[in-house]
Amino acid sequence: MTKIDDRILIVGAGPVGLTCAYSLALAGIPVTVLEREPDVPVDLRATTWHPPSLDFMDDLGVADHLIAHGHQAPTWQQRIKETGERAVFDLGILRGETRHPYRLQCEQVHAVRFLTERLLEIDPSSVRFGATVSSIGHDETGVSVTVDRGDGYTELTGRYLVGADGAHSIVRKTLGLEFTGKTYETLLLVATIGDFPFEDHHEDLSDVNYVWSDEGSFSLLRVPGKWRSGIRPRPGRPPEDSLTDEALQEHFNAIVPREDAYDVQARGMYRVHQRVTERFSVGRVALAGDAAHLNSPNGGMGMNCGIHDAVNLADKLKQIWHGGSVELLDLYDRQRRPVATKYVNEHADKNHRRMQVRDRDERQAILADLQETAADPEKAKAFLMRSSMIAGVREAAAVGP
To answer: What are the phi and psi torsion angles at 149 (to 5°)?
Structure first.
């Protein structure tokens, strides 16, 4: 590479790549974000924003927009549908540890659109949709990417490269990094319906609920104007049969029976993985978000972990841009990779396994333990510091050079 452009290249215009890009752009660092999709995707994706993520987005001037388009959930609960027994966790106990002591339920499309608009205001060429990266190159002087925009291939160069291009990351694959872990046997089914007062039919229902049921466990999460449910296929029923109109009406009628049909607005089916790459950085290239780690969506940790990657990585790149050592990317790896492994995957895996429990006695034992934790302020705070991801952020920050 004889001529390197003074910019940072970012592959992937999801919330992770755009958060990193916007943080850099606000610091006056030129960025180019490359996204293979022709426009912002609006399909079923992440909705949960944990307290430290909102704190980070507040620092970037983005949180108010998310809050305006989201629904604040001050509590979440694990519940047994048939009896109404529940363990309720109140995030208000985190006041003083975060500026946002609640979960925000806001579809990620609102963040992606807002960040894209702000980046384009700073530089009209900073975000390019319909730009598929087919290969990357890197050496001690810079990085390059080959981009297909449908009318031929072009090469772009930059000082550093961020791969935020998802589970099938071309950046990670080109680096030859292993993506070790497992794939869960069960598929995750997701459906959203128009707003309905479920809370009028189930005592003390929260805005975020994880529900055991003899008919099939599920989650029920409120977002503005709708409810979103994660569904476990019934034993013996093919997963795709659980997403038919008839099956979805059956699912929601099992929660609250009604004569009128529920307004099913979207549905999807996803394979669930738990994986972490062997390195978060190689030379001048770094990975963030799903390109670096995948986990069960139970507990809403995936996107949030990626947002935390993005903020940490942007901070390192700012220091490097202004004369710091490129070895700061090694520090990024040492700070963020253990979090993805120790905090996120372990906690998400525990959440996943808890929702798979079918034995009634085992459910009762787990619920009793959760109730005991929720009732003890000290235990509840320690539990929520981990599940809300504050502890992971702090532990990462404590890892020194």
So the answer is: -110, 20
**Strand pairing partners for 191?**
229, 267
Residues 19-42, mean pLDDT to the nearest whole number: 94
Model pLDDT for residues 140-161, shown as the tens digit of each residue: 999 999 999 878 899 999 999 9
Amino acid occupying residue 221 = L
* Interatomic CA distance for residues 287 and 396, integer angstroms: 16
Report the distance separating Cα 239 and Cα 236, nearest Å.
9
Locate the domains of the chain by residue range: 8-71+100-180+273-356+379-397, 186-272
The single-letter code of the amino acid at 281 is S
Q: Pick from 216, 250, 220, 255: which is nearest to 236 by CA?
A: 216
Contact 299, 351 (CB under 8 A): yes
Buried-state track 93-120, b at ≥16 Cβ within 10 A, e below 16: bbeebbebbbbbbbbbbbbbbbbbebbe
How confident is the model over 295-310, as pLDDT tens digits? 888 888 889 999 999 9
Q: Is 287 left (phi over 0), alpha (psi -120 to 50) or beta?
A: beta
What SS3 state is found at 51?
helix
Segment 377-400, tens digit of pLDDT: 999 999 999 999 999 999 999 998
The architecture in CATH of the region 8-71+100-180+273-356+379-397 reads 3-Layer(bba) Sandwich (3.50)
Distance, CA of 92 to CA of 115 (rounded, Å): 29
| Residue 166 parent element (H or E) | none
Q: Return d(Cα 16, Cα 308) in angstroms, integer.
A: 8
Q: How far is 80 from 364, CA to CA, in rounded Å? A: 9
- Least-confidence region, from 206-210, 217-221, 356-360: 356-360
In angstroms, rounded to a whole number, what is the distance separating the alpha carbons of residues 373 and 65? 34
CATH of domain 186-272: 3.30.9.10
- Model pLDDT for residues 86-110, shown as the tens digit of each residue: 999 999 999 999 999 999 999 999 9
Helix (H) or strand (E) holding 315: helix 302-321
Place of tokens 């048939």: 82
Residues 39 and 155: their CA atoms lie apart, in Å, by 21
Give tens-digit pLDDT for 104-127. 999 999 999 999 999 999 999 999
The sheet that has 31-35: what strands, in order across it? 127-129, 31-35, 8-11, 160-163, 285-287, 281-282
Residues shown for the chain? 401
pTM for this predicted structure: 0.95
